[in-house]
């Protein structure tokens, strides 16, 4: 049996995708942190910000605990790993690519995508569907603020809003020149507020948004378990919430256009939920060699 892979991305947040519908190709004891790191290595591996294992929920040992009563409704599970091998609760770019792969691999009928399908994640179930022109949407649930924090980059301190999208974010709105930030190293942050680490967003608000026009922001992100990436879907959602919250005492509601280095995402925010929209692309498919795997 072959060890097939796909390479794909959502706004240049790129992933190695491993089809494993029946959970027998890449069980946890085979796809350990060391192999994930090797796969994501850009020179000696395939290269990626993370790995997505495409597996049925019933083959994932964690699934009953994280999906609870929704287990039976989620046929598929996005088993996400960061490039360092750690698990993340949620990945907004990855889950759009995940649905795209289910369709292109013939594991899901395209007609099921119009109204969306529930996909299991370690952050719980998420509804994902297909939109126009190669785009996908995902209902991420409500943004949950949990305090204020600080990030420090090369001695420069940025105040930010802590927001959970299932995974933790610190959104720092700033007038500083985003291009001048050195994100080659992890920003320092308050470990008491973020005991499991944090994804840090640096955001410039380009337009605050009015009754008739969407808000517009620009974002750079340093991701937990990866480093700087070209895009972060959950980060875009946390950013959209924080950008709207900064301008108002009212419950947050509105659409925010989020420009990331790898493209453009759109986020609809309401008190009830957050909907992320953006592209997903499969770049290549292939097969891992025995020589590289060492098996
Ligand atoms: N790039 C992802 C987020 C991936 C997980 C993140 N690094 C974490 O550890 O929480 C996205 O598009 O949301």
UniProtKB/TrEMBL annotation:
Name of the protein in question: Diaminopimelate epimerase
Location(s), subcellular: Cytoplasm
PANTHER family, sorted: DIAMINOPIMELATE EPIMERASE, DIAMINOPIMELATE EPIMERASE, CHLOROPLASTIC
Keyword Isomerase found: yes
Pfam families assigned to the protein according to its UniProt record, in alphabetical order: DAP_epimerase (PF01678)
Annotated positions binding substrate: 13, 82, 92-93, 167, 199, 223-224, 233-234
Complexes and interactors: Homodimer.
